[in-house]
Amino acid sequence: MNMRYYLHVFDDAGYAFVAQFGLTTEYHQQHRTGGFDLEHHIHFLREVGAGDVMTVYARLVARSAKRIHYLMFFVNETRGTLSAIFECVNSFADMTERRTAPYPPEIAAKIDLLLAQDQALDWDAPICGIMSA
Fold first, then answer.
1. HEC string of 31-56?
2. Which of 5, 73, 117, 126 is deepest in the core (most CB within 10 A)?
3. Which fold has domain 3-119?
4. Which pTM was predicted?
């Protein structure tokens, strides 16, 4: 799989990930909000072959009033291997001003619930150490 498609896969998976907090396309349209990726990188580990069955898993690492820091893992289910890790800092945005903004309380509460679940995992998140929410 060409490297540009990895970002495409992670981008699509990101929409499903933030929808867990209620940040759907409909929510953003209704409230004139959005999200900005402020920083991200992909750690390529293993090649994906034609016909391989792939799954993306996400883990929330941290959050601030306006940002989330998360990882996504591109797992090759066919081979039982990890193919890539995507690390991202994303910010909530007020699209009327095109500026970052604090998460609304109802969204922040859902983020905090998922964050608590992910922080309870018994393995350390493989963060790069230079990115933070």
1. HCEEEEEEEEEEEECCCCCCCCCEEE
2. 73
3. Thiol Ester Dehydrase; Chain A (3.10.129)
4. 0.93
